[in-house]
Design brief:
Structural class: alpha/beta
Distance between the termini: 31 Å
Strand content: 35-45%
Radius of gyration: 16 Å
Number of domains: 2
CATH architecture of the largest domain: Roll
Order of helices and strands: EHEEEEHEEE
Number of strands: 8
CATH class of the largest domain: Alpha Beta
Low-confidence stretches: none
CATH superfamily of the largest domain: 2,3-Dihydroxybiphenyl 1,2-Dioxygenase, domain 1
Number of helices: 2
Mean pLDDT: 89
Helix content: 10-25%
Length: 132
Protein backbone atom coordinates (compact mmCIF):
# COMPACT_ATOMS: atom_id res chain seq x y z
CA UNK A 1 0.00 0.00 0.00
CA UNK A 2 1.22 3.51 -0.80
CA UNK A 3 0.74 6.73 1.10
CA UNK A 4 -2.71 7.90 -0.09
CA UNK A 5 -3.02 11.08 -2.12
CA UNK A 6 0.65 11.65 -2.99
CA UNK A 7 1.01 13.54 -6.25
CA UNK A 8 4.46 15.15 -6.13
CA UNK A 9 7.02 17.02 -4.07
CA UNK A 10 5.78 20.27 -2.55
CA UNK A 11 9.08 21.81 -1.49
CA UNK A 12 12.71 21.25 -0.67
CA UNK A 13 14.28 23.12 2.26
CA UNK A 14 17.90 24.25 2.43
CA UNK A 15 19.86 26.09 5.11
CA UNK A 16 22.51 28.36 3.64
CA UNK A 17 25.63 29.96 5.12
CA UNK A 18 25.25 33.32 3.31
CA UNK A 19 21.62 34.30 2.74
CA UNK A 20 22.14 37.07 0.18
CA UNK A 21 24.62 34.99 -1.85
CA UNK A 22 22.28 31.99 -1.94
CA UNK A 23 19.26 34.19 -2.72
CA UNK A 24 21.11 35.61 -5.75
CA UNK A 25 22.18 32.12 -6.84
CA UNK A 26 18.74 30.51 -6.69
CA UNK A 27 16.76 33.53 -7.91
CA UNK A 28 19.03 35.46 -10.26
CA UNK A 29 21.22 32.65 -11.63
CA UNK A 30 18.81 29.70 -11.61
CA UNK A 31 15.70 31.80 -12.25
CA UNK A 32 13.53 31.00 -9.24
CA UNK A 33 10.67 33.38 -8.48
CA UNK A 34 10.28 34.76 -4.96
CA UNK A 35 6.93 33.77 -3.46
CA UNK A 36 7.55 35.25 0.00
CA UNK A 37 10.45 36.52 2.06
CA UNK A 38 10.13 36.58 5.84
CA UNK A 39 12.54 37.72 8.52
CA UNK A 40 11.93 35.86 11.78
CA UNK A 41 13.43 38.20 14.41
CA UNK A 42 13.22 35.74 17.33
CA UNK A 43 15.31 33.23 15.37
CA UNK A 44 17.47 35.84 13.61
CA UNK A 45 16.57 33.92 10.49
CA UNK A 46 15.27 34.54 7.00
CA UNK A 47 12.89 32.20 5.23
CA UNK A 48 12.64 32.66 1.48
CA UNK A 49 10.05 30.72 -0.52
CA UNK A 50 11.11 30.34 -4.15
CA UNK A 51 9.02 28.88 -6.99
CA UNK A 52 10.49 26.71 -9.73
CA UNK A 53 8.54 24.77 -12.33
CA UNK A 54 7.10 21.77 -10.49
CA UNK A 55 8.42 22.49 -6.98
CA UNK A 56 9.19 25.12 -4.39
CA UNK A 57 12.45 25.74 -2.54
CA UNK A 58 12.55 27.05 1.02
CA UNK A 59 15.82 28.84 1.72
CA UNK A 60 16.65 29.41 5.39
CA UNK A 61 19.40 31.36 7.11
CA UNK A 62 20.43 30.85 10.72
CA UNK A 63 23.26 32.35 12.75
CA UNK A 64 26.29 30.03 12.49
CA UNK A 65 24.64 26.85 11.14
CA UNK A 66 26.84 23.75 11.47
CA UNK A 67 28.57 22.53 8.33
CA UNK A 68 27.17 19.32 6.84
CA UNK A 69 28.98 16.94 4.47
CA UNK A 70 27.65 17.58 1.00
CA UNK A 71 29.40 15.26 -1.41
CA UNK A 72 27.01 12.98 -3.27
CA UNK A 73 28.00 9.93 -1.21
CA UNK A 74 27.63 11.55 2.25
CA UNK A 75 24.69 10.55 4.47
CA UNK A 76 21.58 12.69 4.19
CA UNK A 77 20.45 14.62 1.14
CA UNK A 78 22.51 13.32 -1.77
CA UNK A 79 21.65 16.03 -4.29
CA UNK A 80 18.85 18.09 -5.80
CA UNK A 81 18.17 17.20 -9.45
CA UNK A 82 16.72 19.72 -11.90
CA UNK A 83 15.11 18.62 -15.18
CA UNK A 84 16.28 20.50 -18.28
CA UNK A 85 15.29 20.02 -21.92
CA UNK A 86 18.75 20.74 -23.37
CA UNK A 87 21.74 19.91 -21.19
CA UNK A 88 24.28 21.68 -23.42
CA UNK A 89 22.35 24.97 -23.29
CA UNK A 90 22.02 24.76 -19.49
CA UNK A 91 25.72 23.98 -19.06
CA UNK A 92 26.71 26.86 -21.34
CA UNK A 93 24.48 29.22 -19.33
CA UNK A 94 26.12 28.20 -16.05
CA UNK A 95 29.68 28.25 -17.38
CA UNK A 96 29.20 31.74 -18.82
CA UNK A 97 28.43 32.78 -15.24
CA UNK A 98 31.60 31.13 -13.85
CA UNK A 99 29.79 28.14 -12.34
CA UNK A 100 31.99 25.05 -12.39
CA UNK A 101 30.16 22.15 -14.04
CA UNK A 102 31.39 18.56 -13.99
CA UNK A 103 31.82 16.57 -17.22
CA UNK A 104 28.58 15.15 -18.65
CA UNK A 105 27.82 11.53 -17.80
CA UNK A 106 25.23 9.04 -19.04
CA UNK A 107 22.97 7.31 -16.50
CA UNK A 108 23.56 3.61 -17.10
CA UNK A 109 19.99 2.74 -16.12
CA UNK A 110 17.96 5.45 -17.88
CA UNK A 111 20.31 6.56 -20.64
CA UNK A 112 19.75 10.21 -19.60
CA UNK A 113 22.63 12.65 -19.85
CA UNK A 114 23.41 14.47 -16.59
CA UNK A 115 25.99 16.58 -14.78
CA UNK A 116 26.58 18.14 -11.37
CA UNK A 117 27.43 21.65 -10.18
CA UNK A 118 27.62 23.14 -6.66
CA UNK A 119 25.41 25.75 -5.04
CA UNK A 120 27.21 28.50 -3.04
CA UNK A 121 27.55 26.18 -0.02
CA UNK A 122 28.78 23.21 -2.03
CA UNK A 123 25.44 21.37 -2.11
CA UNK A 124 25.53 19.12 -5.16
CA UNK A 125 22.94 20.14 -7.76
CA UNK A 126 22.30 17.91 -10.75
CA UNK A 127 21.04 18.75 -14.21
CA UNK A 128 19.22 15.88 -15.91
CA UNK A 129 18.37 16.12 -19.60
CA UNK A 130 14.72 15.16 -20.08
CA UNK A 131 13.58 16.35 -23.53
CA UNK A 132 10.03 17.70 -23.58
Amino acid sequence: MALPGVHGIHHIALICSDYQRSKRFYCDLLGGTVIAETYRALRKSYKLDIAFPGFELELFSFPAPPVRPSTPEAQGLRHLAIRVTDLAVAIDYLQQRQVVVEPVRIDELTGNRFTFFPDPDGLPLELVECPA
